[in-house]
Specification:
2 domains, alpha+beta, 15% strand, 10-stranded mixed beta sheet, single chain
Length: 427
């Protein structure tokens, strides 16, 4: 199953290094800006150059209140600080969106186990009974939809020191419904589907023929499809049971039971054990997402850290911006703006940058999260086709929470600035 052995070390190191660089950049940018700020801001000889932005012109056309118009104008007057503020919020939001995509992928594993090769809910081994008796007991249960006989054997590939897992399950006329993401499933003897790990190991592709040796007998199959394969790092070849030699396929080692929708696996397992007088060995299939539950804890911790980094960056940028705008605030107050109007001006200018940064980060994260997860799946041998982006509702809620929290943090320096006294030199 998906676990520590299925994760390639290089992508993990790359992710760790990339995360460290992002954190250093998010922390270093506001520190660098703070270090370049003089202890006493100098009075500008002339107002900042530039024209009104289109957003500010639109605010004038729709006759917004003066405080909002001034805030819209001030948001993009100093373009470099505005870009750094928006970028400092976009990067953490992008990483948060990627984390939400990983969470959605795990949820998809739980709700659709058949997409990771778990169409069967139970595996029954004959145990103390004959194989035919085990199949008879399993097949007549009212909640069993289909029974697939199966056998797992090890095979040797030419030129390879390690063995290859061959999973013979179902038959050519009744193939096991593997999640085939490229090509098709096997439909006749001599056809097979393979995991990405096996394709990479043997250097083959869909349509090629493979010659293996199973217990001294040759097995020549044609690869007709690629499956999502969480077992054995994807180094698995899946064929019909009738593709193996008779000595390797009879009797089957186990029976995979596909249950009807909404069936309680524990209840079916109990009935099978009771009917067989504890003679059967009945095991429930373990979902890969259950083994990766620790990742959810990591995602929550990562989101918390990234949120704190983004808010700290915003708070630092707001404080530095207010320091640079000290004379502007004095002019606004001298013009007669009330403290609330001054606060609305500051929050509007910061809020536009917040919306821009959070929206851009969420958009970029949503556009690359599926590709990143599939890249990790391809590298680890599981195969591409498992990545899922966060749902639109989840993404919208995350954006709203991020924007609302950022605006609440921006209110802190804005309220202090609105209550500050006008310097005598500005009167």
């Amino acid at each position: 199953m998906l676990g520590p052995t299925s994760v390639a070390p290089m992508p993990v190191l790359a992710i760790v290094a990339g995360t460290a660089l992002v954190v250093l950049a998010a922390v270093g940018l506001p520190a660098w800006r703070g270090g370049r700020t003089p202890p006493i801001p100098a009075a500008p000889a002339s107002p900042p150059r530039g024209h009104l932005s289109r957003l500010a012109r639109m605010a004038l056309l729709v006759r917004l209140p003066p405080a909002l118009v001034l805030g819209t104008r001030d948001a993009f007057t100093r373009r470099v600080p505005a870009f750094l503020t928006a970028f400092g919020l976009a990067v953490p939001m992008m990483m948060i969106t990627i984390g939400l995509g990983v969470w959605a992928t795990l949820d998809n594993f739980l709700s659709h186990p058949e997409q990771v090769g778990q169409h069967a809910g139970l595996y029954v081994r004959p145990g103390k009974l004959e194989a035919s008796e085990a199949r008879r007991i399993a097949g007549r249960d009212r909640d069993v939809a289909a029974v697939y006989p199966g056998t797992d054997v090890n095979a040797l590939a030419p030129g390879e020191a390690r063995s290859v897992r061959v999973r013979a399950i179902g038959s050519s006329t009744q193939p096991y419904p593997f999640p085939v993401v490229e090509g098709r499933s096997y439909a006749r003897q001599g056809e097979a589907v393979a995991g990405q790990g096996l394709l990479d190991l043997l250097g083959i592709k869909i349509g090629d023929r493979v010659r293996l040796t199973v217990g001294g007998s040759p097995l020549i199959v044609r690869i007709v499809g690629r499956t999502v394969e969480p077992d054995q790092d994807g180094v698995v070849l899946s064929v019909g049971l009738d593709s193996l030699a008779a000595k390797d396929s009879v009797p089957p080692e186990y029976y995979a039971l596909a249950l009807k929708p909404g069936t309680d696996r524990a209840e079916v397992r109990g009935r099978l054990l009771a009917e067989s007088a504890e003679g059967l060995d009945v095991q429930a299939v373990v979902n890969p997402a259950d083994r990766l539950s620790i990742i959810r804890v990591v995602i929550v911790a990562l989101i918390a850290v990234l949120a704190l980094i983004g808010l700290a960056n915003l708070l630092t940028a707001s404080a530095l911006g207010l320091r640079d705008h000290a004379l502007d605030l004095a002019v606004l107050k001298a013009m007669g703006l009330t403290p609330r109007q001054v606060m609305a001006t500051l929050v509007t200018g910061t809020g536009l940058l917040v919306v821009l940064g959070v929206g851009a980060g969420a958009a970029v994260g949503a556009s690359v999260v599926t590709w990143l997860i599939d890249l990790q799946g391809h590298t680890s041998g599981v195969g591409a086709g498992i990545g899922r982006p966060p749902s639109p509702l989840t993404l919208a809620v995350a954006v709203l929470i991020a924007v609302g929290t950022a605006l609440a943090v921006a209110l802190i320096p804005a309220r202090r600035a609105a209550r500050a006294q006008v310097p005598v030199t500005a009167r």
